[in-house]
Here is the input.
Amino acid sequence: MIQTIHKLGRPSIVLLITFVSVSTSLFITSMVFYVWQRSAISNIGIAAAILTPLTVAPFVSWYLLGVLMKVSALEQEMRLLASLDPLTGLLNRRAFFNDAKVLVNYAIREQISVSIVALDLDKFKSINDTYGHSAGDLALTNFTKVLKSCCRQSDVIGRLGGEEFAILLPNTSADEAYQFTQRLHLALGHSSIKVENTLIKYTVSIGLLSLVPTQMDTIESLLHKVDGSLYLAKNSGRNRTVVYGR
Here is the structure.
């Protein structure tokens, strides 16, 4: 319904409703004259049948369509907010898995490569403990900004919780994905946050998996695999990318 309104335009819908109202009013009035008086509709009847809906229908339909469009816009906004992380504006965990699942299934069907990236900010707890949670939030929003600057519009980015993030890079080879992670490391190296006149630098550890998925693969199973590589990155010095299987 809303799609039809947007496609045809509110004025066109109002004209259509008014035309239908007038036509229906004429038909009903004609039937009343025929049943009750066994005669054709009079000129007064025709005038009343036309003027009544012509006066009422445009204003009522314009108002109701406006209300309907506002409700629809509010519903879309609420649906969007329900899928986004309130701090970073990235997809939340549920929305990320939903969108990534679609792309993984597409990659399985078309037999194209995808890359899964798991990211975790290094020593994030120390930022919170030393400078407070507001500094931690600033680091997360700054990281999101840097991350988006390195990603393509087609990439699916999600905050899975805390300082944990994930990205699905569709139609991306292993070399391309690795180059992406190196650009991100480099960009973070030139970035910092300022808290009480103190510049704070931070890094990220990354696990990376690139493959042409099979029917056995799901976004959950792929993330489980790449989490192992992320764990190795965290435990082998941090601020690095570990590729699954290497």
Summary: The chain has two domains: 2-81, 93-243. Residues 73 and 79 are 10 Å apart (CA to CA). The domain at 93-243 is CATH 3.30.70.270 (Alpha-Beta Plaits). The radius of gyration is 30 Å.
